[in-house]
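Design request, tokens follow.
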């Protein structure tokens, strides 16, 4: 049997396929807005497992699947036998007998990889401690919707070196944009994501200064200071305050620079109201584009 098409990480899918998915997402969005309906996933079922909370991911996958003609089953790890130590391998084999694809949001990335190892249906990464590839598909789509091709543009990340940054590092190589990163000491992204990006043509630079990272940027991106499940390593706000995206920091970027945030936002912490509610913020377009981008991911995984 041929291996299913898993969507685990941007580094595991070719740049050509990722670009084709974004083209498909834009086309699907256009057709939806024009009132056209097509249901290529009629009869297909997506199981979704959430080991962490979610608003956007769960609703956009659910609605996306319905718009494509399919159905979903929403599960949490704790209500399954997974929570009573049934193995991921056995869970993967059982679910593969019932459903056509599995989306999982979980803690350790290894749990996702173990699922892909044993599932005979496609597995989609809905966020792990390490990465959040669906978010970056929506983010690149959103940038291009507002400003045209992302190739050669400069993104700036300021804040914590977390899962979203890891996928942004991979995206910078896959979609050929420059990335300036500013994180406080002790919050650096994992070396393996930096190495992979550099090996694959990523033009990335690191600094401790948010102002330096943001200077001349076409897009400024940030995220929460404490990710889900990372509360034990929460650090004082004074460590992150110099990395807050506020109006003063945005002045260092290009005048038409976009502001992005995957949401949920912690207003007054990583971003101020004036920026997130300001004219250059596209955070709700990003949230909407999760739906369109993930429909393209689902169609790619399921060959629709
Ligand atoms: N951005 C994002 O993944 O949001 P949720 O945690 O609400 O799914
Ligand atoms: N870095 C955040 C992203 C939330 C969508 C987290 O993992 O909690």
């Amino acid at each position: 049997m041929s291996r299913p098409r898993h969507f685990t990480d941007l580094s595991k899918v070719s740049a050509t396929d990722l670009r084709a998915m974004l083209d498909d997402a834009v086309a699907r969005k256009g057709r939806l807005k024009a009132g056209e309906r097509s249901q290529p996933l009629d009869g297909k079922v997506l199981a979704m497992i959430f080991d962490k909370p979610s608003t956007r991911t769960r609703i956009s996958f659910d609605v996306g699947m319905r718009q494509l003609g399919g159905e979903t089953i929403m599960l949490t790890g704790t209500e399954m036998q997974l929570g009573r130590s049934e193995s991921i391998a056995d869970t993967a084999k059982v679910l593969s007998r019932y459903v056509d694809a599995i989306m999982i949001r979980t803690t350790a990335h290894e749990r996702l990889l173990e699922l892909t190892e044993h599932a005979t249906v496609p597995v989609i990464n809905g966020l792990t401690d390490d990465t959040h590839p669906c978010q970056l598909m929506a983010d690149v789509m959103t940038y291009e919707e507002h400003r045209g091709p992302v190739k050669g543009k400069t993104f700036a990340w300021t804040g914590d070196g977390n899962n979203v940054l890891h996928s942004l590092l991979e995206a910078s190589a896959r979609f050929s944009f420059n990335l300036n990163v500013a994180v406080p000491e002790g919050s650096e992204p994992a070396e393996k994501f930096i190495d992979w990006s550099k090996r694959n043509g990523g033009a990335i630079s690191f600094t401790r200064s948010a102002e330096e990272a943001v200077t001349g940027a076409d897009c400024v991106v940030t995220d929460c200071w404490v990710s889900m499940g990372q509360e034990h390593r929460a650090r004082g706000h004074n460590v992150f305050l110099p990395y807050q995206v506020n109006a003063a920091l945005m002045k260092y970027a290009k005048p038409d620079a976009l502001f992005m945030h995957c949401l949920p936002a912690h207003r007054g912490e990583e971003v101020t109201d004036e920026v997130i509610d300001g004219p250059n913020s596209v955070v709700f377009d990003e949230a909407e584009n999760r739906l369109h981008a993930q429909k393209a991911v689902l169609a790619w995984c399921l060959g629709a």
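Comment from the thread starter after seeing the answer: thanks! The two ends are 19 Å apart (CA to CA).
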